[in-house]
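README: folding subset

This subset contains proteins for which both the sequence and a predicted structure token string are available. Records are stored as plain text. Below is the entry for 7-cyano-7-deazaguanine synthase (233 residues), shown exactly as it appears on disk.
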Amino acid sequence: MLEKIYHASCVLCFSGGQDSTTLALWAKKAFKQTHLLAFNYAQKHAIELKQAQKIAKLLDLPLKILDLHFLQEITLSALFASNPQSSNAPHPKNPNLPASFVPDRNALFFTLAHAYAFNLGADFVLVGVSQEDYSGYFDCRKEFIDSLQTSLNLGAFGTPEGISFLAPFMAMGKAQEFALAQDLGGLELILEHTHTCYEGVRGVRHAYGYGCGACPSCKLRQDAYKEFLRDYK
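--- output ---
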């Protein structure tokens, strides 16, 4: 992980899921100020926003939620509540992508986080993406993050330098994230309060947390928890 940056502040793209909550646990210790930014884009698993609010209170971190319902009007994804398509299917516009892919979602989220950071005078935007566990989403890769950072800084500051994007989990898998959460004293917070299930199922707690157990996100998290217990616990 990165060295502690006590003098700096950051805006953290926050969903209430495993990745962003683990990142928030670390950021709370690493930064002087951490501002959480979440997005309501009419997602099928909107329960994640309720969990995000609970987690923000538990961590005593400020949280702002932006309304992006318009996104469902201009693009397709199985993640939208209005779309009955299974998240296990291929995307209708690109069979090489999963149906859960939301075109330009990360570009929009990260752009808004950059604007928020600019307004707050924050030094960094933190994102919990990983190209090791990126589920086929091309906008979770390092080259995308680096390119977007350059473009947004050119637009806001006139140079490639300005607000830095940090993706500390880029080369990590979710099993390593479980281990990091344990090291930070937040493993039970991750298991009990975070939500990653695409179907929004939160009725029964499994060993790895809550979820339907069948969607791609649940399968990834379940496998990662087994790996964590085997290799890191």
